[in-house]
């Protein structure tokens, strides 16, 4: 691989700058990918355009994991649109809203459900987003808040669980980087759990935010826009406009039965995978989601035909209408993946990491590794890519500096997670905004201030860890986060529901 030096960070910087200033995600990602391809193509702009499609968009669809995510998004979008057009979603929202009788209960329900769906980060948003959108609409909670809750219980939860693909992947990196000795990769991972400050704080922050019943920053503006300015609150305004005058909503069982089929199918397949493979392989998880949503679509179609009087022609047309609504999301994902590949081609992460290697005072090592992970992950939109770059560097440096290896691993994982959580080009960030039905730029802008409270608390704790690397630092970080949240909401927060 050629040494591109400082040029390797140009595509990410360009994409981030344009995204944050214009809020045009497709434009920013497209220009970022083209810039990187042009650099890689010996500064030939026409070659950059060619590679934008050849090595970028087309190549992404040729990858099994990427293609499966795209197909899953289309399948789920068709299913969601089908049950929304049936009118059953409104009936379901009304009945569910009565059981979740307050905005706080509705938000806590998302958090608890998110903890339960620990096996997949993308599945968290794709399953819970459509389910809770109408519930949040009935309680007049802005969609941006739902996107934040989904995003905060997706990757931050998965990275804390050893039996997921996240845990297996991280332990494989530790095994390749740590010398064989007293601790196995699993034991190092377990010891590093207490130092995964940001994921833990991000997950714990959700009930804290809910308890205060206040919003601040851009989130407060979105909530005020919903409540005071009169922005439509229906979870699917297109459906509301399309419903003929006087037509009654379909019964709620047109939603509850397909959802029951979905969840029971997932449980059966997961149980089968656990018994036959001893785990939940990531590629099989995607297959399980596809099969389960397919079964849910079939059950919904049969119910609509039998009790709703809908023809199969209407059902198929409605399904494809739903697919059409997520084409822009698919394009964003393809461009985000392409930018990640461009960063790997140019060696973005390696350049940033090596620029700091050997220049760190030992006491600042945990904090700087955390910040480095944030920068790389935010620039590339990939926490996994960040881990692959930093774990092999951080572990040897920690050993040489006399720092605990679990502390180094925890700092890497936390930094990569914070960057991924707040990056506008992260696939999980994109999926959270899509699943909640809000604009992607609005989700990014409203989430960053909330996530930054956990980020600041983590940074302070890592600064202390350079002098006293003890597990009780987590308790100190939790206490600090509580103080910061209290101060922010008391001073600048606006009361929610």
Quaternary state of this entry equals: single chain
Determine Rg (CA atoms, Å): 23 Å
Structural class by sheet pairing and helices: mainly alpha
Helical residue percent? Answer: over 70%
Q: Widest sheet: strand order?
A: 1-2
The gross shape turns out to be: globular
Proportion of beta-strand residues:
under 5%
Features:
mainly alpha, 25 helices
Brief summary of the model shown:
The chain is an all-alpha fold. 77% of the residues lie in helices and 1% in strands.
Task: Describe the protein in words.
This protein has 497 residues and is an all-alpha fold. 77% of the residues lie in helices and 1% in strands. The protein is built from 25 helices and two strands. It has a two-stranded antiparallel ribbon. α15 (253-277) runs antiparallel to α16 (282-306). It is globular and about 70 Å long.
Which SSEs are present, and which pair or pack?
Elements: H1 10-22, H2 25-40, H3 45-61, H4 64-85, H5 88-99, H6 103-116, H7 121-138, H8 143-152, H9 155-158, H10 165-177, H11 185-192, H12 197-212, E1 214-215, H13 217-229, H14 237-242, H15 253-277, H16 282-306, H17 312-324, H18 327-346, H19 348-356, H20 365-380, H21 383-401, H22 405-422, H23 427-436, H24 440-465, H25 473-492, E2 494-495
Antiparallel strand pairs: 1-2
Helix pairs in contact: 1-2, 2-3, 2-18, 3-18, 4-16, 4-17, 4-18, 5-7, 6-7, 6-8, 6-12, 7-8, 7-23, 8-23, 8-24, 10-11, 10-21, 11-22, 12-24, 12-25, 13-24, 15-16, 18-23, 19-21, 20-21, 20-22, 20-24, 21-22, 22-24, 23-24, 24-25
